[in-house]
Amino acid sequence: MTAATPGTATGLFADLDTPDPLDARFGDPTDPANPAGFDAFLAADERGELLPAGRQVVDGFGLGAEFVPRGLGGRLGQVDDLARVLRPVFRRDAALGLGYGAINLISSATVWAAGNAEQRRWLADVLLRNGQTAGAYTELATGHDLVRSRLRATVRGDELVLSGGKEVINNIARADAATVLARTSDEPGSRSHSLVLVDLASVPRDRLRFLPRFRTSGMRAINLGGVEFLDCPVPASALVGGAGEALETVLRAFQVTKAALTGATIGSLDTQLRTVTRFALERRLYQRSVADLPLPRAVLAGAFTDLLIADCLATTVCRALHVLPRQTSVYAAAAKYLVPMLTQDCVDELAVLLGARSFLRDGPYGIFQKHLRDLPVGSLAHAGETVCQATIIPQLPRLARKSWFATPPAPATLFRLDEPLPELDFDRLEITAKPDDGLAATLLDVEQDLRDDPLLGPLCGQLVAELAALRADCLDLAPRNRTPLAAPISFELAERYAIVLAASACLGVWRHNQDHPDPFLRDTAWLVAALGRLTARLGRDPVPGAAAVEPAVFAALVERHESNRGFDLVGRRLC
Amino acid sequence: MRHAPYELAAEFDRRLGDPSDAGRLFSHARCAALDDREEFPQEICRELDVLGLPAHYVPTEHGGTLRSYEEAVQLMRAVARRDLTVAIAHGKTFLGAVSVWVGGDRDQADALGAEIAGGTIVSWGLTEREHGSDLLAGEVLAERVADGYRVSGEKWLINNGTRGHLVCLLARTARDAGPRSFGILLVDKRKLDPASYRTLPAERLHGIRGADISGIAFADAAVPGTALVGPEGGGVEIVLKSLQLTRTLCASLSLGAADHALRLGTDYALRRENYGSLLIDLPQSRRLLALSYADLLLAEAVTVVASRGIHALTGELGVISAATKFFVPNLVEQAVKRLAKLMGSRALLVGDTHEHGRFQKVQRDHRIVGIFDGNSVVNLHSLVNQFPLLAKSYRRGTVDAAGLTAATTLTDPLPEFDRDRLTLLARGGCSVVQALPAGVAELTALVARGEVPESLERTAIGLKLAADELLAAIAAQRPAAVDVPAEAFDLAERYTACFAAAAAIQLWLRNRATVVDGPAGALWRSGLWLEAALTRLLGRLRPARPDGTDDVFERLVEPLVAQHEAGQLLSLLPYQQQEARR
Amino acid sequence: MTTPKQDTAATDTAATDPDAIRDWLLDRVAFYLERPVTDLRPDVKLVEYGLDSVYALTLCGDIEDEYGLELEPTLAWDHPTVDAIVTLLREMISGNR
Ligand SMILES: Cc1cc2nc3c(=O)[nH]c(=O)nc-3n(C[C@H](O)[C@H](O)[C@H](O)COP(=O)(O)OP(=O)(O)OC[C@H]3O[C@@H](n4cnc5c(N)ncnc54)[C@H](O)[C@@H]3O)c2cc1C
Ligand SMILES: Cc1cc2nc3c(=O)[nH]c(=O)nc-3n(C[C@H](O)[C@H](O)[C@H](O)COP(=O)(O)OP(=O)(O)OC[C@H]3O[C@@H](n4cnc5c(N)ncnc54)[C@H](O)[C@@H]3O)c2cc1C
Are residues B184 and B267 in the same domain? Predict the structure, then answer.
């Protein structure tokens, strides 16, 4: 294991009053004259083009370095920091954030996890000079079922010969490097695929065919393409890790990418909430502002709460990659499952509030419908809901049997937003979780201290009851229902478990950040609201009196809106 | 069973031809291309004109072929199933004209009927840039002058605002505040001095991209006095009554969208392999399909009852239309979202990779149905305003038995629509909901006779308890005119679920003996579709932890696949569709 | 029908007897496949029975819990038959002592 070196989160609360450097480079998104503002991104989306001014900002900032581990000369340290660095990009344009940003993590993480020194150095170099990369893992015919994917790599002398196609691949036509998942054995099963790092500029180009661009309803600007290798030779040294290790590598590396991507997309939700809050404050109806009406207030306060829940879960899971690496196979899937779902539900409610303007592509709120279209694309890309649930399901019975109500709580470091973390070590990530579910145990831990609280007590009680019921249900699951081919009940249990984890994350974040500079986050109103939203999702009755926290949450929302601060856990000034 | 409105729709669908044949004007390929280019579906609308659809927008008494609003709903659904842009662009004439059927005099209505049958486009101008839901805040002014009105001001977000020939305009006829300060003018743009008005550019939209959603600005436009529809202060009242019809009719758009999405989903599930099995054989995917089918059937049941209710329960339409306009689009939205999970990346791809990118188009397009003609909040608000009456009538069990029977018995002829029975105050509450306890009792009796499974009874009784509890909570709600608390909206939403349950129960009870043939028979026998629908609703009203025993959805898969494979409408009353089978 | 229905791992953890390990493992595999244990042969690849990648990972967790070991989760990928796993386990268990 690598020795712990300090991360960067120490300074997290140091410059709350100045915008994040990348945010500052982009400038005020609402300024129509800003070449990298919302209007420009909207226009680029219409053209199906990544906004050149946006790419310049990202290149000028050297975003590529964020995906390169420090040891290789980059800035990748803590994954929670990485997620936060990406938020200003997602706040403006998820297509740029994914298609010109996070995609580079998706294609490189497998190389950081399994590549040799030479491969790592080469790929680091590509990214450090703002090169673009592609991760050609899936095929249209087999989707997430990588075990059945068909593109082949055959050893011929000291060469590997690639043949076959990959479709719906981000960046492929313009990438310098591509990580390709290829079949290296005809045997069925999980040892038949390997990863190949392809230097696209140096392969014989006549052995490559690029497919026409795939277009999507959202993130219209991303460059989704496809590639067909026609007996295309690459050096045998292009093999990443051992032959047959691809699935294992992918299962480890994608924990990092899922967590980071989930944390990054909170920037997009920030924009949605900010846009509709502005509308509600400006729009007049029945001689008052919409924001004066009780229902819109409830919707806005609820959305703010959901954003905080999402950030608690995403940030905790990002930090868990460093602190509880043996658990993150299931945590990362839970975050990538639940956060997009919460976000979608909450954005749908916001759309109702925005009314007709949620349907207009122009005008002062036009950015809303763009993020609305982008969201499902981001949710599906890189592990959609079903796939994440299917990752969680087989792991539940063992957690139920060996861990829940037995494992001690996670260490405070997991939750302390400004505490530096040990270095990320891909080798310590496990492809299935060990029975040490510290995050779920935090619920039981914090609950003990809150029993006397008239609101948090009963709310935690409901969650503990849920965990107990989950435990019974998961122990009871028929064998078939523990597989990805499980019956719906398993999928429902996976959802409930993800909700319990989110509640635990909220409790942990609240408990261990009592020195947060924002008194609102030290106080309990948001926590009551958050647990209330989560228990409602579990179908539990509302706790009497819990709704009384809404004015405090709404006031904090308006305060952050007016002082132009982020709605996330950090609450930094925005540009 | 043959049911006239469905037969009419089937015949119309037949005349439109196979949408997968690119040589047909109303084809999937053309709709996708038009959407891509944001082009108005000119040729397709023309095709609908040629096939005589406009005459169906005109009641027979005014020279058209519209015999019942139930027919209109099934026809519009058949159009919407192919494409929502077209349905909304063409069908707007119908919605725009309703104010005249509701509030106009005989000559006006006959004249309009002749215009529409001849292809005249009518739009409906209510909304202004600064005022949407709050009709009473409208600023467009119609000042009385010697020979009519002088109209000024802007209406914005008007469907066919540019292309329309006539616009049915809500305008202020008096300066003081209040509901009697507005009138409706049927403005003929063709006869206006061109200098006195201009149309606004079409907005660029999230969905229905090809539609003409624009606006019109008047500057001292001279409109003849004969354009006035109804009495001078009667505008708001006529609009509110018209909305009772149009909100009910909007359900057809949602049904069409659900038909389309579910067909795409079923088709994909039957062909796509994953993990070595077809998606349809993966339990979770199967469930996603079955739930969506259950939702579609429930939405259909509600829509059938509501559209028949226009004739049979006219005095209660204020409740029925609000409940339907909230419930159906909302349910379909959920179903489409669920189907998107099944479709995976194919729910997002535009272009030729998969089925012309139809899924993402349906999903984008359908969002509008919940927004226009009174958005979900407005409809729930309208129910909240009626809470005291609804609570009282439920407690008393008031039911218009004849009306309810006619609304729910498909073999019964519908009474003529009588506009004089429209009222802004549903004095009798909502017979459909108020008949819920009796309906559940009937089901219980059938269980005793072994005609339906006990599981259905349990669910139905659960629903009745939930309804009792809900109506008690509604009774306890303190009335508030504007500052309605969020909880009241939640109660109203639940009320719509009770309404749906009650409508489904009545529809099944009254027709179970007559609909027994074909693939639909399996749905009706032993109450299968009803049980599925009620199970969904009970889950919404009283969420419970999953227990893995809800096999009613498993039983739905077979009829779904059977209807799909037979090329039939996925429906309670299926008919043969023109879409080619694969 | 001898398909085990319950999620109780075999109890006798002291067993290093290869037959006992093999029986226990076959039992677990039968459990996941929902097939009678008599249908299964210890020298046939698990993947041929349809024990796909993720079940195989789950199996590894069961073995860890049963024998108190820490294993590579990909154990069943690399030792694709029951016999192969038994051989490995025997070595590990005796090595542990
Ligand atoms: C594609 C399209 C086509 C259209 N076609 C037409 C047309 O042909 N003719 C026409 O006249 N109009 C048309 N409209 C306009 C549409 O009907 C209105 O926009 C809609 O009725 C509501 O208005 P609004 O969205 O502007 O919201 P507003 O009325 O301004 O309301 C703002 C928000 O306040 C909330 N709200 C409203 N009432 C309450 C309440 N009581 N309590 C709490 N919250 C409340 C709502 O959620 C709403 O989101 C169209 C709109 C679109 C997008
Ligand atoms: C915007 C975007 C960008 C992308 N970029 C890349 C990229 O750069 N590189 C790359 O390699 N790929 C990329 N992809 C592809 C992506 O990662 C997936 O391969 C693709 O989305 C898989 O989805 P699918 O719908 O094709 O198939 P699948 O994931 O195979 O899913 C098909 C269906 O099976 C269902 N299903 C799956 N598991 C189960 C189960 N256990 N039980 C029941 N049903 C199940 C799913 O719900 C779905 O209905 C991208 C996709 C998108 C949309």
Answer: no
C31 within domain boundaries: yes
Tell me, yes or no, whether B421 and B519 share the same domain.
Answer: yes
For ligand 2, the distance from its centroid to the CA atom of residue B367, given in whole angstroms, is 24
> Which of A143, A355, A481 is nearest residue B344 as measured by Cβ atoms?
A143
| CA distances to A536, B70, B511 from A465, in Å | 14, 49, 44
The total number of structural domains in chain C stands at 1
Whole-model pTM: value is 0.96
Q: Kindly report the CA angle at A83 between A80 and A89, in degrees rounded to 5?
A: 160
* Contact between B499 and B306 (Cβ < 8 Å): no
All partners of chain C with 3 or more CB pairs under 8 angstroms: A
Which chain B residue has the Cα nearest residue A294? B485
Residue A359 Cβ inside 6 Å of ligand 1? The answer reads: yes
Domains of chain A (ranges plus CATH)? 11-128 (1.10.540), 133-242 (2.40.110.10), 265-562 (1.20.140.10)
A90-124 burial, b if ≥16 CB within 10 A, otherwise e?
bbbbbbbbbbbbbbbbbbbbbbbbbbeeebbeebb
Pocket test for ligand 1, best of B129, B377, B487, B493 (most atoms within 8 A of CB): B377
Residue at C23 is within a domain = yes
| Radius of gyration in angstroms for the set of CA atoms belonging to chain C, rounded to a whole number | 12
The one-digit pLDDT tens for each residue of chain A (575 residues) are 333 344 455 689 988 999 999 999 999 999 999 999 999 999 999 999 999 999 999 999 999 999 999 999 999 999 999 999 999 999 999 999 999 999 999 999 999 999 999 999 999 999 999 999 999 999 999 999 999 999 999 999 999 999 999 999 999 999 999 999 999 999 988 999 999 999 999 999 999 999 999 999 999 999 999 999 999 999 999 999 999 999 999 999 999 999 999 999 999 999 999 999 999 999 999 889 999 999 999 999 999 999 999 999 999 999 999 999 999 999 999 999 999 999 999 999 999 999 999 999 999 999 999 999 999 999 998 889 999 999 999 999 999 999 999 999 999 999 999 999 999 999 999 999 999 999 999 999 999 999 999 999 999 999 999 999 999 999 999 988 988 679 999 999 999 999 999 999 999 999 999 999 999 999 999 999 999 999 999 999 999 999 999 999 999 999 999 999 999 999 999 99
Is ipTM over 0.90?
Answer: yes
Q: How far apart are CA A525 and CA A455, in angstroms?
A: 10
